[in-house]
Design a protein that fits this description.
Number of helices of chain B: 11
Helix content of chain A: 25-40%
Structural class of chain A: alpha/beta
Radius of gyration of chain A: 20 Å
Structural class of chain B: mainly alpha
Shape of chain B: globular
Oligomer: heterodimer
Largest sheet of chain B: none
Radius of gyration of chain B: 25 Å
Strand content of chain A: 15-25%
Strand order of the largest sheet of chain A: 6-7-8-3-9-10-11
Helix content of chain B: over 70%
Order of helices and strands of chain A: EEEHEEEHHHEHEHEEHHEH
Mean pLDDT of chain B: 90
Order of helices and strands of chain B: HHHHHHHHHHH
CATH topology of one domain in chain B: MetI-like fold
Distance between the termini of chain A: 27 Å
Low-confidence stretches of chain A: 290-303
CATH superfamily of one domain in chain B: MetI-like
Largest interface: A-B, 24 and 18 residues
Shape of chain A: globular
Distance between the termini of chain B: 41 Å
Low-confidence stretches of chain B: none
Chain lengths: 303, 279
C-alpha cells in the first residue's frame, strides 16, 4: 500500500496548566491522512484546536506529541511547499495588491527575472479577477472580498504542494463568499492542488470538499469522523442542493455538530484510532454503514 | 469674494494674516521709538541712551534688520561678526552630524531590543536612567573627555536625539503584527530579509515618529549647547547679541531659530507621510 501524501500521526497539543495545575489538552492523538490533490475541510466548534492543527501543518506551531509527514519528509518549520491563506488575509498593507503577490513569487523563485515575476503574478491576479487598475491599489483601498482574492492569488502563485486555508471566507458577506468560493473551485480544479481548509460553514464544506473531517469539542478533542462527499463534480451552487445526497450529508454534519460533537468529547486515551469513514451520501445503504477507516475512497458512488 | 464660499484653508490663512497684523500692530504701538530727551550728558551718551530705558525694539526695526541680514546672509567679518546664514549652517552641521550618528546607533540597537525580549529587559534599566538626563548635564563630562568644544556640542546632540529614536524603533519593531511575521515565515524569508522586507516597512511609521521627535529636541538643545560652548552657531549668535545689547538681532535670531526648526520638522513630516500605511 502506498503511503498517503500527508500523514498526521499521534498529533497532540497540550498547554501547561495555570500555576502548575493539570495541563490543558486541546486535542490528542489525531491520526489522519490527506491524499494528493484532495480537498479536505475540517469542521469543529471553537476551541477544538483546528487552527492549531493548521498552524502545525504550516510549520508555525509545534505539536506536543506526534508529527506530520508530507511527501516522505517530516514537517519542521514553515516552507514554501505549504502556502497559507490566513483568516484575516495577512496582506502587507504597505504594498499594492500586485506587490503582495510578487513578494511571494520572488521568494519562491529568487532566480526569476523581474519581468517573469511580474508576468506570473499578474496571471494569478487575473485568475482571481483582480485587474484593471485594482491590482495597483493598497489593501486598505480594497474591499474584504478583493483582499481575500489577493491573498488567494498570493498563495496559489507560489504553487505550493499543500494549500492551507484558515476560514478564508469567515469575514465576508454571503454574496462575495459565494463568488470567491466559485473562483476557488475553478482554480483548484485546474491545478491538482492539495487543499486543507478550516471552515465553520457546513454548506461551504459540502460545496468544496472531497472529504470533511469532523472534530469533537475540546478539551481532549479528536478527529472523530471522515465524511466522504459523494457528490459529483463540477458542483454548482444552484444545482448541488437538488442532489439527493446533499441533504443526507448536510443533516449528518449538522447532527454531528449539534449533538454528537459534545457527546463524543472528553474521551481520554481513545487509543489514537483514525477517524471513522462515513458516506452519508452514498446510494447503497451498505455503504453508509461505518467501516473501519482504511484509506478514504474517493470514487463517487452517488453519480 | 462675491459671496463665494471660501475653503477652510483660505479662511484659516486669512485669519492667520489678521492675527499677525494685529500682533505686530500692538507690538509696534507698545514700543514707541526712542525720543531724545534734550541734551545728553557724556555719561548718558556712554551708557547709550539718555535716561531712556532699554526697550524692546518695535517690529519695524526687526523687519529692517531681517531684510538687511537676509540680503547678505553669508558675510564673514571675523569671529564676532558673521552672517546669519553662516551661523545657522554651523548649528545645522552640528545638529545633523550628532543626529545621524545617533540614528546610526539607535535604529540598529532599537531593532535588536524590539526583536529580543531579553535584550529589551537587559537594556531597559539603562535606558530608563539615561533618558531623563538633561542633555546639557553631559556637557562638562563631554568637554573633559573629548577636549574639543565642537565635538562636545555634537556629542550633546547625539545623546539627546538617541532616546526617542531608540525607544520608538524598539516599540515599532516589537509591535509588528504577528501575522506579517508569519507571512515572512511561510515564505521562508531569512532573518535579514524578514528584517528589511517586513519588519522595517511595518515599523517605519513608528521609527519616523521617533526620528521626528529627535530632530525637534536636537534643534531645541543646540541653541543652549552653543550658548555654552560659544564660538559659532545660532545659539552663540543669540548670546553674543545679548551681550552687545542688540535686542533687534536677538529677536531676529529667535525668529530664525523658529523658521529653521519648522523647516526641519516639515522635512520629517514629509518622510513620515511617505512611509505611512493604512491597515
Amino acid at each position: 500500500m502506498t503511503k498517503p501524501f500527508i500523514q498526521i500521526s499521534g498529533l497532540s497539543k497540550r498547554f501547561p496548566g495555570a500555576n502548575g495545575g493539570e495541563p490543558l489538552t486541546v486535542f490528542e492523538s489525531a491520526n489522519f491522512s490527506i491524499e494528493k490533490g484532495e480537498f479536505v475541510c475540517i469542521i469543529g466548534h471553537s476551541g477544538c484546536g483546528k487552527s492549531t492543527i493548521m498552524n502545525i501543518l504550516a510549520g508555525l506551531d509545534t505539536p506536543t506529541d506526534g508529527g506530520v509527514i508530507m511527501g516522505g519528509k517530516e514537517i519542521s518549520g514553515p516552507s514554501l511547499d505549504r502556502g497559507v491563506v490566513f483568516q484575516n488575509y495577512s496582506l502587507l498593507p504597505w504594498l499594492s495588491a500586485l506587490k503582495n503577490v510578487t513578494f511571494g513569487v520572488r521568494a519562491r523563485h529568487p532566480d526569476w527575472s523581474r519581468a517573469q515575476v511580474l508576468e506570473h503574478s499578474q496571471k494569478y491576479l487575473e485568475m482571481v479577477g483582480l485587474t484593471g487598475g485594482a491590482e495597483h491599489r493598497k489593501p486598505a483601498q480594497l474591499s474584504g472580498g478583493m483582499r481575500q482574492r489577493v491573498s488567494i492569488a498570493r498563495a496559489f502563485a507560489i504553487r505550493p504542494e499543500l494549500l492551507l486555508l484558515d476560514e478564508p471566507f469567515g469575514a465576508l458577506d454571503a454574496l462575495t463568499r459565494g463568488t470567491i468560493q466559485d473562483e476557488l473551485t475553478r482554480i483548484w480544479s485546474g491545478s491538482e492542488q492539495t487543499v486543507f481548509m478550516i471552515t465553520h460553514d457546513v454548506d461551504e464544506a459540502i460545496l468544496l470538499a472531497d472529504r470533511i473531517l469532523l472534530m469533537t469539542n475540546g478539551p481532549f478533542a479528536r478527529v472523530a469522523e471522515s465524511v466522504v462527499i459523494d457528490i459529483p463534480r463540477p458542483r454548482e451552487r444552484a444545482e448541488i442542493i437538488h442532489q439527493p445526497a446533499y441533504y443526507k450529508i448536510r443533516n449528518h454534519l449538522v447532527e454531528f455538530l449539534a449533538r454528537r460533537s459534545k457527546q463524543l468529547s472528553g474521551v481520554r486515551d481513545h487509543g489514537g484510532e483514525p477517524p471513522v469513514t462515513v458516506r452519508p451520501g452514498a446510494d447503497d445503504p451498505d455503504e453508509q454503514e461505518r467501516r473501519p477507516a482504511s484509506r478514504p475512497q474517493l470514487v463517487s458512488v452517488a453519480s | 469674494m462675491n459671496g463665494m464660499a471660501l475653503s477652510d484653508n483660505s479662511k484659516a490663512f486669512l485669519l492667520s494674516i489678521a492675527m499677525l497684523v494685529a500682533i505686530l500692530g500692538i507690538w509696534e504701538l507698545a514700543t514707541p521709538g526712542v525720543k531724545s530727551a534734550g541734551e545728553l550728558t557724556e555719561y548718558e551718551m556712554l551708557t547709550g541712551g539718555g535716561g531712556e530705558q532699554a526697550r524692546v525694539p518695535p517690529p519695524s526695526q526687526v523687519i529692517e534688520k531681517a531684510v538687511k541680514e537676509l540680503s547678505n546672509p553669508f558675510y564673514d567679518n571675523g569671529p564676532n561678526d558673521k552672517g546669519i546664514g553662516i551661523q545657522l549652517a554651523y548649528s545645522l552641521y552640528r545638529v545633523l552630524s550628532g543626529y545621524f550618528l545617533a540614528a546610526l546607533i539607535a535604529i540598529p540597537i532599537g531593532f535588536l531590543i524590539g526583536m529580543s525580549p531579553i535584550a529589551y529587559k537587559a537594556l531597559d534599566p539603562f535606558i530608563q536612567v539615561l533618558r531623563p538626563i538633561s542633555p546639557l548635564a553631559w556637557m562638562p563630562l563631554a568637554l573633559f573627555v573629548i577636549k574639543d568644544s565642537q565635538a562636545s556640542a555634537i556629542f550633546v546632540i547625539f545623546i539627546c536625539s538617541i532616546w526617542p529614536m531608540l525607544i520608538n524603533t524598539a516599540f515599532g519593531v516589537a509591535n509588528v503584527r504577528k501575522d506579517w511575521i508569519n507571512v515572512a515565515k511561510t515564505h521562508e524569508l531569512g532573518q535579514l530579509k524578514t528584517a528589511f522586507l517586513v519588519i522595517l516597512p511595518a515599523a517605519a511609521p513608528t521609527i519616523l515618529t521617533g526620528m521626528r521627535i529627535s530632530i525637534g529636541i536636537a534643534w531645541l538643545v543646540i541653541v543652549a549647547a552653543e550658548m555654552l560652548v560659544g564660538g559659532t552657531g545660532i545659539g552663540y549668535y543669540v548670546w553674543n547679541e545679548w551681550n552687545n545689547l542688540d535686542l533687534t538681532s536677538v529677536i531676529f535670531s529667535i525668529l530664525m531659530i523658529g523658521v529653521v526648526g519648522m523647516l526641519l520638522d516639515t522635512v520629517f513630516a514629509y518622510i513620515q507621510r511617505a512611509v505611512q500605511f493604512q491597515e
